[in-house]
Design brief:
Length: 312
């Protein structure tokens, strides 16, 4: 069987693409290696997605997206794609469970926050450790938070967190920030911003919630354990040390920049019939709302491509 559209990835971008493609009566397949949702399924509350209903969570939002896509006929298959052939008129995707052919491909494999890589981080993610200030800042109203990193994103997100937290401390492995000077100036002039230089997080501790962390001074080797304020009982840890886009499969297949897929505003890659949507592509804002917009655009453009190339 040759599908009109095969979408790799079932996060918000992929599901939105699936919805728009299937509504256009295109034979649509969504491939996902594990479960639908992407990063959003680890978010306890989704308050910044337009129209989110009361008590909306990542999983409930994704469940509705899946239901919508399937309602219009999109198929979903769990498989891990190991190889892609994108150059021909018919694209070929080879997975662990089977081979898939398509007139167009939408890459929506996403990007994952680069973890600190210390003990306790994985276990306490969503329980004090967060990779999204926009998503989770409100949970730390009038509390202390720590931002790990020293680049533009880390400092900008730290500044954003000062709108909620009573104190924001940036933990940076060097003795000066890597962020742009203009961003640094704003940070240094903010009374809520504090800095822990030459330091890295060695371990995060807590019983179901972050209660303390061990910080190491990289110059002296000294270890310091930072405990939560007794009245708060916890604090936030926000690592902003970059993202890892899921593009390994596409190296040498489509144009990449800093590991992200390059597209135009219509989500077109440099390969005809191949589109990219969501966090996997070069873009300025990685949020659910921008991912779904990307997916919708990619699907509409895929339909136009099929009509033009295959004389539908």
């Amino acid at each position: 069987m040759i599908y009109d559209v095969v979408i790799i990835g079932a996060g918000p971008a992929g599901l939105a693409a699936g919805l728009y493609a299937s509504r256009a009566r295109l034979k649509t397949l969504i491939l996902e290696k594990e479960k639908a949702g992407g990063q959003i399924v680890s978010t306890a509350e989704v308050a910044n997605y337009p129209g989110s209903i009361e008590d909306a969570t990542g999983p409930t939002l994704v469940a509705r997206m899946v239901e919508q896509a399937e309602e219009f006929g999109a198929e979903r298959v769990l498989d891990t794609i190991k190889e892609v052939e994108l150059e021909g008129k018919i694209k070929v995707l080879k997975g662990e469970k089977g081979e898939y052919q398509a007139k167009t491909v939408i890459i929506a494999t996403g990007a994952n926050p680069r973890p600190i890589g210390c003990p306790g981080e994985k276990e306490l993610t969503g329980r004090g450790v967060s990779y999204c200030a926009t998503c989770d800042a409100a949970f730390f109203e009038d509390m202390e938070v720590y931002v790990v990193g020293g680049g533009d994103t880390a400092v900008e997100e730290g500044m954003y967190l000062t709108k909620f937290a009573r104190k924001v401390t940036i933990i940076h492995r060097r003795d000066e920030l890597r962020a742009a000077k203009s961003i640094q100036e704003k940070a240094f002039s903010n009374d809520k911003m504090h800095f822990m230089w030459d330091s890295v997080v060695e371990e995060i501790k807590g019983d179901g919630i972050v209660e303390s962390m061990v910080v190491k001074n990289v110059k002296t080797g000294e270890l310091t354990e930072v405990f939560a304020d007794e009245d708060d009982g916890t604090f936030g840890i926000f690592p902003f040390i970059g993202f890892i886009p899921a593009t390994e499969l596409f190296i040498g297949k489509v144009e990449l920049k800093d590991e992200y897929i390059v597209t135009d505003e219509d989500m077109k890659t440099n390969i005809p019939g191949v589109f990219a949507a969501g966090d996997v592509r070069v873009k300025s804002l990685r949020q659910v709302v921008t991912a779904t917009a990307d997916g919708a655009i990619a699907a509409v453009q895929a339909e136009k491509y099929i009509n033009e190339v295959f004389d539908v």
